[in-house]
Each structure stands twice: as structure tokens, then as C-alpha cells.
Amino acid sequence: MSADADQTDFQARLTAVADAVEVTLDRLLAPDTLPNEVTRPPRLLEAMRYSTLGGGKRLRPFLLVETARLFGVEGVGPLRAGAALEMIHCYSLVHDDLPAMDDDDLRRGRPTAHKAFDEATAILSGDALLTYAFDVTAGEQTHPDPGVRAALVLALARASGLGGMAGGQALDLEAERRTEPHTAAFVLQMQSMKTGALLLYAVEAGAILGGASPSQREALMHYGMALGAAFQVADDILDAESDTETLGKAAGKDAGRNKATLVAALGLDAAKARRDLLAREAAEALTATGLGARTAILAEAARFTVDRKS
Amino acid sequence: MSADADQTDFQARLTAVADAVEVTLDRLLAPDTLPNEVTRPPRLLEAMRYSTLGGGKRLRPFLLVETARLFGVEGVGPLRAGAALEMIHCYSLVHDDLPAMDDDDLRRGRPTAHKAFDEATAILSGDALLTYAFDVTAGEQTHPDPGVRAALVLALARASGLGGMAGGQALDLEAERRTEPHTAAFVLQMQSMKTGALLLYAVEAGAILGGASPSQREALMHYGMALGAAFQVADDILDAESDTETLGKAAGKDAGRNKATLVAALGLDAAKARRDLLAREAAEALTATGLGARTAILAEAARFTVDRKS
């Protein structure tokens, strides 16, 4: 198969998973209450839907779903775990955009949640999305084995919490308040938490759902770590080179803010070299899974991660 | 045993559990990282500790620990589940106090988190506490059976989320923006979500950990619902009658804000009658557990809930 055909297959698969995740999120965020819920307040639910539906590449759920599929595990389980992961990602964007944080008005080309609703509703909708992600992950439909569900909850919480994504955002904000330049070591640590941890969880969750062997899981985690790092340096490069219209969010803000980025720490050329190296490292890590050609879709995902334009 | 002796036993037990919960929280919020955590950012961790340690009656963990103890389940498991529950309670206070929400400067007689730190750190520390609560609940040390841990996660998420606590806070804030008086039916629904759901979870979690039979669980849930309702109407009465110094937070704010309270909806006398009725209902529900005198401590807890001065 030619590289072009691979690319077409990948895009079709990415779209198919994004559509299935959208349907899953739409159903999970319906007005109907679940057992033990009193009522779902309409405005809060609307804000939760606003920030999760109709947007995004769904890269994280895609990685989760495709990793589980390597082991023949498909359908509602991985889609629910992927939708929960996307809720965590979306909640983090809502809170990061708040006036007290990055103070952004634009996200995916639309007003941010606190602009479209109000600040209190934005905070609460983020809290509720974060909480609901654990509800969905722990639910029986996600996997029949409660041991698998408990393992997913534990991994998701650790990736999202003070030693992962939330901690990474705290470090990022502290960095912005400093005036001296940031070391590459600091930027790498911060990014491995802020964006890397959740991308790694996507692959880890797929491995947990799929019942990967320890060596397969190790290889997949290696892939996930390289991919996560590649993703973030690609993001830094995009911010430095792109414009607001293409990006769908404010571009070029990093330089003006003493933001901790690899472009600032290493320079643009070194950042690009690192990005390409990491994408190759991610693809190569897949061979150690022993799963052969089936992993081609994840290798494509690594290429997509560094080639994307927004 | 006289009522006075009961009271002394209850206070001693309440203090003992509060001390054990404090130690558990202190250990969980240590600087040491857990597997898969990159690092725990010191300032974020400090803010998490500030909002959870050294304060509060620990009523929710107490109810959880004592309910589990009815079935002979004691030690690290219930303490971890109780500490996780307390993290959820504390995160909700941190976010509720934010300028965009209730805009409070004082909590438990100390500056609120966004005053002691800053708004971004307060938001993130709340997010991280909420997330960590699920980490702790899902962890192996909480219970050897992953089915029990998954059930706890599911119940905790549902009690805290859009159909529970977070949804209740959203309704409460919306109510404040209206100018017409609130119906008792609305106030009851909002309160059953905002404060009731988490108190009910405390009892539910104890029943799950203890392996209560379906009928015992039903009786305990009845107790938990009555106790939760009694707690909140007692809170409304305290706000109407107490002063800021005794309460450790701003008092008398409800009336000035068109806050949805039962005192406003029913009048002070009817609210007090309801409070006392609910406390009795809670105590009586315990007889249906068939556990006899062992439940006396929970009956005391119901009495304490309505008799407290802050």
C-alpha cells in the first residue's frame, strides 16, 4: 500500500472514531438522570455539552480505541473509556481558559465556556465533567471485570491529578510568573505532566482494556510517552508559526508571556528536530509489541500528531 | 447508660475518627510521588494541604467509618475511603468560596484558599483534590475486592457530580440570581443535591465496605437521607441565628442574597420543627437495620448534626 493510501485509511478511521465518540458523549450527556441522580440542571448540562460536543480531533479517544483494538477489544467499552478521557481533556481546557488562568476568549473558533455562559458555570461544568469521567469509567458497561475498571480509574486519576495534568498546569502558571528563561529540563517535565500524562493514559487504558502482556504494555507505554512529548513540541511549534485563524485559538501568545515552551528553550530548529525524532521513536517502539502490521495505525497517529496544522 | 455518658462516648469517638482521618490525609498529601506521578508541585500540594488539614468536624468520614464498623470493617480501608470523601467535601468548599461563586474570604476562621494563595491555585487545588479522591478510593489498600472499589467510585462520582453536589451548587447559584422567593420544593431538591448527596454517600460507602445486606443498605440509606436533610436545615437555621465568630465563616449572608434556604421558604419555627422531625426519622430508620444497639453511635450522630453550634 502506498503512503497516500495509508494516509487515507488513517483519516477515515480517525473520522469514524471521532463520530462514534461524539455519539457516545451525546448519549452520556443526555438530560435523563441515572440511578441516584436527583436531577441534571439544564444550564449546567448545556455548558457541559457545549464544551465537549461538536469539536476536536478526539485524538485521545482515538489512541485509546485503536490500542484496545490491537487486542480485538472494540465497541461500547473502549468508546466509554475514550469518552470519559475526552471529558477530562475538555474540563481541563475549560478551567485553563478561565480569567484566573490563561484568560482565553477563544477555543476551537468559538467563545470559551466562561464567555458563552459565565465564570461560575464554567468552573462547575468543568468540575462536573471531571467527576462524570470517573462515573463513566467505573460503570459496568465499560468492562465486565471490575478489576479492569478499578485499574482504569486509578490510572486516569493519576494521569489527571497533582502529579500529572493538574500539576503540570500549576507548574506552567508558576513559570509564566517568572522572568528568567526556562530550562529545557523544566519545560520537558512540565509538558510530560500537562499534556503527556493524558496522552500516555490513552495508550495505557487501551492496553488495560485489551489485556496486553507486561512486555506489550511496556512497549505501548514507550510509544505513548514519545507520542505525548512529540505532540507538545509540535504544539509549541504551531503556536510560534501559525496564526489565530488556522489554530482556532489565540496564537503567538507563548512568546509574549514567558510561557515555558521548547521553542523558547531550544530554538525553533532544534525543537523541530526533536519533534521528528520523537515521532520516529514512537513508531519504532511499536515493533516491540510483537503485534506486527496491526500497529500501523498507531504509527500513522504519531505521524499525524507532528504533521497536523491545528 | 445515661444520655450524658452516651454523649461523652460519641464525642470521644468523633474526635478519635477525626484524628485518624487527619493522619490519613496528612500521609496521602505527602510530597512523595506515587507510581506514574512525575512530581508533586510544592505550591499546589501546599494549597491542597491548606484546604484539607487541620480543620472541620470530619462528619462525613465519621459517618462512613462508623457505618462500616457496624459490620466489623475497620482500619485503613474505611479511613482511606473517608479521607477521599473529605477531599471531595474540601474541594467543593474551595470552589464554592471563589469570587465567581459565593465570593467568601473566610472559612473555618481562616482566609479562604484563593485569599491565602491565589485564584488559579485555588481552582487547581480543588481540581486536584477531586481527582485524588478517586485515586485513593480506587486504590488496592481501600478494599481487596476491586468490585467493592469500583462500586465506591461509581457511588462517589454520582453523589458529587451533575446530578448531585455539583448540580446542587449550580441550582443554588441560579436561585440567587432570581428575585422571587423560592418554593420549599425547590429548596429541598437543591439541598438534597448540594449537601445531602455527599452525606448519603458517607453512609452508602460504609454499607458497601461493610457488605450490608440489601435490606440493611436500604435502612441505612433512609437514615442517610434523613440525616442529610436535617444537616442542611440545621445549617440554614445556624446561618439565620448565629454570628460570624461562632460560625467561622460569614453568617447572616443568606437573607441578604435571596439564597434558597428552608428558613426563607418555611419560616424559622417550621424549619426547626422539620429539623427535629428529620433527626428523629434518621434515628428511627436505624432500627430497620436489625443491628440493634450497635447503631446507637449513628443515632447520636443524627442528634449531633442538629445540635451543633457551627
Q: Key features?
A:
prenyltransferase activity (chains A, B); homodimer; 2 strands; metal-binding (chains A, B); isoprene biosynthesis (chains A, B); 310 residues; Polyprenyl_synt_CS (chains A, B); mainly alpha; metal ion binding (chains A, B); Farnesyl Diphosphate Synthase; 15 helices; two-stranded antiparallel sheet
Binned strand content of chain A: under 5%
Largest sheet entry of chain A: 2 strands, antiparallel
| Uncertain stretches of chain A | none
Helix count from the secondary structure assignment of chain A: 15
Biggest protein-protein contact in the assembly: A-B, 64 and 65 residues
Number of domains of chain A: 1
Q: How far is the N terminus from the C terminus of chain A?
A: 27 Å
- The gross shape of chain A turns out to be globular
SSE order of chain A, one letter for each helix or strand: HHHHEEHHHHHHHHHHH
If you average the pLDDT of chain A, what whole number results?
A: 93
Q: Which CATH architecture of chain A would you pick?
A: Orthogonal Bundle
Return the CATH topology of chain A. Farnesyl Diphosphate Synthase
**Portion of residues in helices of chain A?**
over 70%
Family (chains A, B): Belongs to the FPP/GGPP synthase family.
InterPro entries (chains A, B): Isoprenoid_synthase_dom_sf, Polyprenyl_synt, Polyprenyl_synt_CS, Prenyl_diphosphate_synthase
Cofactor (chains A, B): Mg(2+)
Protein name (chains A, B): Probable farnesyl diphosphate synthase
